[in-house]
Amino acid sequence: MHKKAERLKKMKPVAVSNLTEEQRAKLPPGQTLTEKFPILHEGEVPHYDMSEWTLKVFGEVEEERTFSYEDILAMPTVTVNADIHCVTRWSKFDTVWEGILFRDFLAGLKIKPDAKFVMFHADPDYDTNVPIEDLLKDDVLLAYRFNGEPLTDKHGWPLRTVVPHRYFWKSAKWLRGIEFMKEDRPGFWERNGFHNEADPFKEERFSGEALDIPEDEWTHKEFD
Asked: Under a CB-based contact definition with an 8 Å cutoff, are residues 21 and 224 in contact?
């Protein structure tokens, strides 16, 4: 059992200073603004033979689908500017992503009417759950480019989800499967003490309690 949630609760506050009023208004409680892009994940960074890479759609669907990377790249592309927020207390403003709007991807599938939730399955052995309704916003993507360049391996290449209005563990790197579900069930971090909803502005970091203790684990990690 991972103890990350318990460890994060014990971390010391990080001071927030030198911000404009506009930045303060955009920054969720307990977050620290950074211009860098911290690299955090569980397990090893996967590497792929792209001739064999696939994305599988399954679960509460009329027809299971398997997409190649060429299929993904052939779909209509959008560019989104979004603020992102990590449960480890960093936020990065005005990040620019390119990919497929999730609701456009959804429109090309035959989803059963009682499908209400999605489980994103990713390498290595990672999953995270999000309500379908949450994925229909204008800035939720299946992304393959960041700041005008292809995603790097450490940030989720070749494909990741971007769900900016939730803590960033809901934005799964190295996406390999999209499972549609009638009922919700917890994913990897949700099973290990993290909040099921993950709204940064409500500080929904951990399950079972409201928490107002910032932490600074991200400052000790690798950056881009």
From this structure: no
